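Reply to dn_fold:

You asked what the input looked like. This is it:
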Amino acid sequence: MNITAAMVKELREMSGAGMMDCKKALTKTDGDMDKAVEFLRENGLAKAEKKAGRIAAEGIVKIDISDDKKSAAIVEVNSETDFVAKNDTFQNYVAEVAAQINAESPADLDAFLGSPWAKDSSKTVKEQLASMVATIGENMNIRRFEKVNVEDGAVVGYIHAGGKIGVLVSAKVDQYSAEVEECLKNVCMQVAAMNPKYLSSDDVSEEYKKKELEVLVAQAKNDPKNANKPENIIEKMVTGRLNKELKEVCLTEQVYVKAENKENVGQYVNSVAKAIGSDITLKGFVRYETGEGLEKKNENFAEEVMSQL
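and this is what came back:
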Protein backbone atom coordinates (compact mmCIF):
# COMPACT_ATOMS: atom_id res chain seq x y z
CA MET A 1 0.00 0.00 0.00
CA ASN A 2 1.21 3.51 -0.82
CA ILE A 3 1.92 5.40 2.43
CA THR A 4 1.16 9.08 1.86
CA ALA A 5 2.58 12.11 3.66
CA ALA A 6 -0.93 12.90 4.92
CA MET A 7 -1.15 9.47 6.57
CA VAL A 8 2.23 9.96 8.24
CA LYS A 9 1.18 13.42 9.43
CA GLU A 10 -2.10 12.07 10.86
CA LEU A 11 -0.36 9.25 12.73
CA ARG A 12 2.28 11.64 14.04
CA GLU A 13 -0.40 13.96 15.46
CA MET A 14 -2.26 11.01 16.97
CA SER A 15 0.75 9.38 18.62
CA GLY A 16 3.41 12.03 19.11
CA ALA A 17 6.01 9.67 17.57
CA GLY A 18 8.70 10.74 15.10
CA MET A 19 8.07 11.02 11.37
CA MET A 20 10.23 8.05 10.33
CA ASP A 21 8.80 5.89 13.12
CA CYS A 22 5.28 6.71 11.91
CA LYS A 23 6.18 5.84 8.32
CA LYS A 24 7.71 2.54 9.48
CA ALA A 25 4.63 1.72 11.57
CA LEU A 26 2.27 2.40 8.66
CA THR A 27 4.42 0.32 6.31
CA LYS A 28 4.48 -2.59 8.78
CA THR A 29 0.68 -2.48 9.20
CA ASP A 30 -0.28 -1.84 5.54
CA GLY A 31 -1.63 1.61 6.35
CA ASP A 32 -4.00 0.48 9.11
CA MET A 33 -4.05 3.54 11.43
CA ASP A 34 -5.27 1.71 14.57
CA LYS A 35 -2.72 -1.09 14.15
CA ALA A 36 0.01 1.49 13.49
CA VAL A 37 -0.78 3.25 16.79
CA GLU A 38 -0.63 -0.13 18.55
CA PHE A 39 2.71 -0.91 16.84
CA LEU A 40 4.16 2.38 18.08
CA ARG A 41 2.93 1.74 21.63
CA GLU A 42 4.30 -1.80 21.70
CA ASN A 43 7.70 -0.54 20.59
CA GLY A 44 7.69 2.33 23.09
CA LEU A 45 7.63 4.98 20.36
CA ALA A 46 4.30 6.64 21.09
CA LYS A 47 4.11 9.34 23.75
CA ALA A 48 1.88 8.04 26.52
CA GLU A 49 0.04 11.30 27.10
CA LYS A 50 -0.70 11.99 23.44
CA LYS A 51 -4.37 11.37 22.79
CA ALA A 52 -5.62 9.97 19.50
CA GLY A 53 -8.69 12.24 19.45
CA ARG A 54 -7.71 15.81 18.62
CA ILE A 55 -9.75 18.56 20.28
CA ALA A 56 -10.35 21.15 17.62
CA ALA A 57 -14.00 22.19 17.07
CA GLU A 58 -15.45 25.24 18.82
CA GLY A 59 -18.63 25.48 20.88
CA ILE A 60 -19.65 24.93 24.49
CA VAL A 61 -20.89 22.36 26.96
CA LYS A 62 -23.88 23.23 29.16
CA ILE A 63 -25.57 21.40 32.03
CA ASP A 64 -29.06 21.66 33.49
CA ILE A 65 -29.87 20.26 36.95
CA SER A 66 -33.34 19.95 38.50
CA ASP A 67 -34.07 21.83 41.72
CA ASP A 68 -34.29 18.58 43.69
CA LYS A 69 -30.91 17.40 42.32
CA LYS A 70 -32.50 14.17 41.11
CA SER A 71 -31.97 14.68 37.39
CA ALA A 72 -29.56 16.49 35.11
CA ALA A 73 -28.65 16.85 31.45
CA ILE A 74 -25.34 17.66 29.79
CA VAL A 75 -25.10 18.73 26.14
CA GLU A 76 -22.42 19.81 23.68
CA VAL A 77 -23.30 22.22 20.87
CA ASN A 78 -20.62 23.10 18.33
CA SER A 79 -20.04 26.29 16.36
CA GLU A 80 -17.48 27.25 13.74
CA THR A 81 -15.69 29.90 15.79
CA ASP A 82 -14.88 30.63 19.39
CA PHE A 83 -16.29 34.14 18.84
CA VAL A 84 -19.78 32.69 18.31
CA ALA A 85 -19.33 30.24 21.20
CA LYS A 86 -18.94 33.25 23.53
CA ASN A 87 -21.97 35.04 22.06
CA ASP A 88 -24.87 35.52 24.55
CA THR A 89 -27.46 34.43 21.98
CA PHE A 90 -25.59 31.17 21.40
CA GLN A 91 -25.01 30.62 25.13
CA ASN A 92 -28.70 31.15 25.93
CA TYR A 93 -29.74 28.81 23.13
CA VAL A 94 -27.51 25.98 24.41
CA ALA A 95 -28.89 26.51 27.94
CA GLU A 96 -32.43 26.12 26.52
CA VAL A 97 -31.38 22.92 24.74
CA ALA A 98 -29.99 21.48 28.00
CA ALA A 99 -33.16 22.44 29.91
CA GLN A 100 -35.42 20.77 27.35
CA ILE A 101 -33.36 17.55 27.39
CA ASN A 102 -33.54 17.46 31.19
CA ALA A 103 -37.29 18.03 31.14
CA GLU A 104 -38.18 15.57 28.37
CA SER A 105 -35.51 12.81 28.50
CA PRO A 106 -35.39 12.12 24.73
CA ALA A 107 -34.33 8.61 23.71
CA ASP A 108 -31.54 9.77 21.40
CA LEU A 109 -30.35 12.70 19.29
CA ASP A 110 -32.60 11.90 16.31
CA ALA A 111 -35.66 11.70 18.56
CA PHE A 112 -34.73 15.02 20.18
CA LEU A 113 -34.19 16.79 16.84
CA GLY A 114 -37.62 15.61 15.66
CA SER A 115 -39.47 16.68 18.81
CA PRO A 116 -41.28 20.06 19.20
CA TRP A 117 -39.12 22.97 20.36
CA ALA A 118 -40.21 23.77 23.94
CA LYS A 119 -40.16 27.53 23.39
CA ASP A 120 -42.22 27.35 20.20
CA SER A 121 -44.11 24.11 19.52
CA SER A 122 -44.81 25.15 15.92
CA LYS A 123 -41.16 24.27 15.21
CA THR A 124 -39.15 21.11 15.77
CA VAL A 125 -35.82 21.23 17.58
CA LYS A 126 -34.12 20.72 14.21
CA GLU A 127 -36.03 23.64 12.67
CA GLN A 128 -35.12 25.89 15.60
CA LEU A 129 -31.47 24.90 15.12
CA ALA A 130 -31.73 25.90 11.44
CA SER A 131 -33.27 29.20 12.50
CA MET A 132 -30.37 29.83 14.89
CA VAL A 133 -27.88 29.08 12.10
CA ALA A 134 -29.62 31.67 9.92
CA THR A 135 -29.68 34.22 12.75
CA ILE A 136 -26.06 33.80 13.83
CA GLY A 137 -24.71 33.26 10.33
CA GLU A 138 -22.55 30.31 11.24
CA ASN A 139 -23.00 26.55 11.08
CA MET A 140 -24.04 24.96 14.39
CA ASN A 141 -24.50 21.37 15.50
CA ILE A 142 -26.09 19.69 18.53
CA ARG A 143 -23.46 17.01 18.81
CA ARG A 144 -24.32 14.89 21.85
CA PHE A 145 -26.14 14.82 25.16
CA GLU A 146 -26.69 12.60 28.18
CA LYS A 147 -29.45 12.52 30.78
CA VAL A 148 -28.72 11.38 34.35
CA ASN A 149 -31.39 10.33 36.85
CA VAL A 150 -30.78 9.51 40.52
CA GLU A 151 -33.69 8.25 42.62
CA ASP A 152 -31.88 7.68 45.92
CA GLY A 153 -29.25 10.38 45.80
CA ALA A 154 -28.17 13.51 43.96
CA VAL A 155 -26.38 14.74 40.87
CA VAL A 156 -24.01 17.71 40.91
CA GLY A 157 -22.38 19.50 37.97
CA TYR A 158 -19.36 21.64 37.16
CA ILE A 159 -18.51 23.79 34.13
CA HIS A 160 -14.87 24.65 33.49
CA ALA A 161 -13.42 27.50 31.41
CA GLY A 162 -16.76 28.93 30.34
CA GLY A 163 -18.02 25.70 28.83
CA LYS A 164 -14.87 24.05 27.45
CA ILE A 165 -15.42 21.14 29.86
CA GLY A 166 -18.63 20.03 31.56
CA VAL A 167 -18.99 17.33 34.23
CA LEU A 168 -21.86 15.60 36.02
CA VAL A 169 -21.27 13.37 39.06
CA SER A 170 -24.06 11.27 40.59
CA ALA A 171 -24.03 9.67 44.03
CA LYS A 172 -26.24 7.74 46.42
CA VAL A 173 -26.66 9.84 49.57
CA ASP A 174 -28.74 9.45 52.73
CA GLN A 175 -29.39 13.16 53.08
CA TYR A 176 -28.41 16.00 50.76
CA SER A 177 -26.56 18.86 52.45
CA ALA A 178 -24.10 21.67 51.75
CA GLU A 179 -21.26 19.32 52.79
CA VAL A 180 -22.42 16.66 50.34
CA GLU A 181 -22.71 19.23 47.54
CA GLU A 182 -19.20 20.54 48.23
CA CYS A 183 -17.81 16.99 48.24
CA LEU A 184 -19.45 16.09 44.92
CA LYS A 185 -18.42 19.42 43.41
CA ASN A 186 -14.81 18.62 44.32
CA VAL A 187 -15.17 15.23 42.65
CA CYS A 188 -16.52 17.00 39.55
CA MET A 189 -13.40 19.16 39.48
CA GLN A 190 -11.26 16.02 39.81
CA VAL A 191 -13.03 14.50 36.79
CA ALA A 192 -12.55 17.72 34.80
CA ALA A 193 -8.83 17.88 35.62
CA MET A 194 -7.82 14.20 35.51
CA ASN A 195 -10.22 12.80 32.87
CA PRO A 196 -10.75 9.27 34.29
CA LYS A 197 -12.12 6.56 32.02
CA TYR A 198 -13.88 4.46 34.67
CA LEU A 199 -15.53 4.94 38.06
CA SER A 200 -13.48 2.15 39.71
CA SER A 201 -11.37 -0.83 38.69
CA ASP A 202 -14.49 -3.02 39.11
CA ASP A 203 -15.92 -1.30 36.02
CA VAL A 204 -12.91 -2.06 33.79
CA SER A 205 -13.71 -4.78 31.26
CA GLU A 206 -11.58 -7.90 31.02
CA GLU A 207 -11.15 -7.08 27.34
CA TYR A 208 -9.53 -3.74 28.21
CA LYS A 209 -7.21 -5.38 30.77
CA LYS A 210 -6.22 -8.11 28.33
CA LYS A 211 -5.47 -5.61 25.56
CA GLU A 212 -3.39 -3.39 27.85
CA LEU A 213 -1.47 -6.42 29.17
CA GLU A 214 -0.62 -7.42 25.60
CA VAL A 215 0.72 -3.94 24.89
CA LEU A 216 2.71 -3.82 28.15
CA VAL A 217 4.19 -7.30 27.55
CA ALA A 218 5.26 -6.28 24.04
CA GLN A 219 6.85 -3.09 25.43
CA ALA A 220 8.73 -5.05 28.09
CA LYS A 221 10.00 -7.65 25.61
CA ASN A 222 11.20 -4.92 23.24
CA ASP A 223 13.18 -3.27 26.04
CA PRO A 224 16.86 -4.43 25.83
CA LYS A 225 17.09 -4.34 29.65
CA ASN A 226 14.66 -7.27 29.82
CA ALA A 227 16.36 -9.39 27.14
CA ASN A 228 17.45 -12.14 29.54
CA LYS A 229 14.46 -12.08 31.87
CA PRO A 230 12.21 -15.17 31.91
CA GLU A 231 8.56 -14.97 30.77
CA ASN A 232 7.07 -15.29 34.27
CA ILE A 233 9.16 -12.37 35.58
CA ILE A 234 8.05 -10.16 32.68
CA GLU A 235 4.42 -11.08 33.36
CA LYS A 236 4.78 -10.05 37.02
CA MET A 237 6.38 -6.77 35.97
CA VAL A 238 3.62 -5.85 33.54
CA THR A 239 0.87 -6.87 35.97
CA GLY A 240 2.27 -4.30 38.39
CA ARG A 241 2.36 -1.70 35.64
CA LEU A 242 -1.24 -2.46 34.70
CA ASN A 243 -2.39 -2.03 38.29
CA LYS A 244 -0.60 1.33 38.39
CA GLU A 245 -2.26 2.34 35.11
CA LEU A 246 -5.70 1.40 36.44
CA LYS A 247 -5.18 3.74 39.39
CA GLU A 248 -4.64 6.55 36.90
CA VAL A 249 -7.76 5.86 34.81
CA CYS A 250 -10.21 4.88 37.58
CA LEU A 251 -11.79 7.83 39.41
CA THR A 252 -12.09 6.39 42.94
CA GLU A 253 -8.48 5.15 42.82
CA GLN A 254 -6.92 8.34 41.46
CA VAL A 255 -4.92 10.45 43.90
CA TYR A 256 -7.26 13.24 45.00
CA VAL A 257 -5.75 16.41 43.49
CA LYS A 258 -6.62 18.63 46.46
CA ALA A 259 -5.33 16.18 49.08
CA GLU A 260 -2.22 16.92 51.09
CA ASN A 261 -1.82 13.34 52.37
CA LYS A 262 -2.03 11.55 48.97
CA GLU A 263 -5.41 9.97 49.74
CA ASN A 264 -7.37 8.78 46.74
CA VAL A 265 -10.79 10.05 45.66
CA GLY A 266 -12.62 7.12 47.25
CA GLN A 267 -10.91 7.76 50.58
CA TYR A 268 -11.72 11.48 50.35
CA VAL A 269 -15.43 10.78 49.78
CA ASN A 270 -15.48 8.28 52.65
CA SER A 271 -13.81 10.79 54.98
CA VAL A 272 -16.49 13.39 54.20
CA ALA A 273 -19.26 10.81 54.72
CA LYS A 274 -17.79 9.82 58.07
CA ALA A 275 -17.42 13.46 59.18
CA ILE A 276 -21.07 14.28 58.49
CA GLY A 277 -22.44 10.89 59.54
CA SER A 278 -24.09 10.20 56.19
CA ASP A 279 -23.45 7.65 53.45
CA ILE A 280 -22.03 8.95 50.15
CA THR A 281 -21.51 6.40 47.37
CA LEU A 282 -20.35 7.56 43.95
CA LYS A 283 -22.56 6.07 41.22
CA GLY A 284 -21.19 7.53 38.01
CA PHE A 285 -19.88 10.52 36.07
CA VAL A 286 -20.11 12.13 32.64
CA ARG A 287 -17.37 14.34 31.21
CA TYR A 288 -17.72 16.29 27.95
CA GLU A 289 -14.89 18.33 26.46
CA THR A 290 -15.81 20.68 23.64
CA GLY A 291 -14.67 19.41 20.25
CA GLU A 292 -13.32 16.16 21.68
CA GLY A 293 -12.34 13.94 18.75
CA LEU A 294 -13.28 16.53 16.12
CA GLU A 295 -10.96 18.28 13.72
CA LYS A 296 -11.01 22.03 13.30
CA LYS A 297 -11.14 23.55 9.84
CA ASN A 298 -7.67 24.91 9.11
CA GLU A 299 -8.13 28.56 8.24
CA ASN A 300 -5.64 31.24 7.29
CA PHE A 301 -7.20 34.69 7.71
CA ALA A 302 -4.59 36.44 5.55
CA GLU A 303 -5.13 33.96 2.70
CA GLU A 304 -8.92 34.36 3.01
CA VAL A 305 -8.63 38.15 2.68
CA MET A 306 -6.28 37.88 -0.29
CA SER A 307 -8.57 35.40 -2.06
CA GLN A 308 -11.50 37.81 -1.66
CA LEU A 309 -9.42 40.72 -3.02
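The radius of gyration is 23 Å.
Hope that clears it up.
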